[in-house]
Amino acid sequence: MRQLEASDESDLLGFSPALENRIDAVEVLPPDDTRGLVDFNYKKQLTRLTATPPSFPEPTAVISGLDISISYRSRKGKRKNLVIEITDFPGEWLIDLAMIGMDFSTWNRWQCSLWETRRNGEEFAEFSKRLFALNLEDQHAVERIRDDYRRLLMTTRESEQGALLQPGQLCTKGHVVDVFPMACAELIDENPSALSEWLEQAFSHYVEGTVKPFFERYLSSIDRQVVLVDVQQVLTTSQTKLDETSEALSLILGKFDYTDDHSWFNWLRPEIDKTCFYATKADRVLPEDHLALRKILQRVARDAMRFSKSHGAAVVIDAIGAISTTTSGRTSDGEMLEGTDKNGKLQAYQNPSLLVDDELCFELNQSFVAPEFVPIMNAGIPLHIRLDSVLEQLVADWME
After folding, report:
1. What is the mean pLDDT of residues 143-159?
2. The model's pTM
3. Nearest to 5 by CA among 18, 16, 14, 201
4. What are residue 107's phi and psi, to 5 degrees?
């Protein structure tokens, strides 16, 4: 957004409307009232970036939005206006879309199979026993078991990045969900009971009252899809994490409608005509490793990309850094990444290899912890990596 606002000063050489000097004005606005969204509060977030020292905005905790109004001239010289509606929400919520079309029994078996592979699988097994013995008439016991499940789910996702564990909306700190399903290993081979009926009702209530309204209100009408994947985070875990992330992307994208009609007329019947997959935080690795980021992203998103293509959507893949924290330079020790920590100390490092002979380097990256640097600002504009390409891929054809 800041790059667009300052398009005449930003480094956006890969964004044709900016390169051709066709952007007259950009205004960031609160979301239109009809969207029913909390304001993203862009100015507050920008203040954090431009402070001394600069800092990143807080992670997304609620659904919010904003509108970007772009006044521009078409290539034929006609003055036009484009309004881009952006909706921001916690990424963990997306995995819940996989629940749509499932019944509780299918979901429970799937989730229990995932818990079996976790380091704290035994803790989940103990939880299942306590849930199986729950007295549904004891409201205090019901609330305690719900709190225990929430804590177990959040702890597991934070420590192991369990991309497929659900419900996703439970994993956002400060977000309240009154009714939600819980998996129980003790129910897999059991006959219907009062507990299974109670959990089935909670599952149906969550899907019908929370997941479907979220999808229909905020996601079902989007035109272009941006999928951000933290490839480096995947490399610090295991092949299992990579496989789960891949499956999660496929499950999520399978809930959207796609079209091969890339024209303005498609706005009359919104469907996704382009899906852009981006490996994030490219500033955290040496420029020579950006190709490796793309290759790993291709592996992670392979099935999701095939799905999008097979349903007529154009597919883009790249490695980007929306707000860079490092610059690269050559020293006597080779090429290094340099940045400044929150105490103002300049540091340099080299990241481990991401790929060796086309094999993922899990062990090298599991033991590596990159320094935490502050954002790099240039006259109030964040340094970026290929954000101009992102804009070109997402909106340039709408501004011809």
Report:
1. 91
2. 0.87
3. 18
4. -65, -45
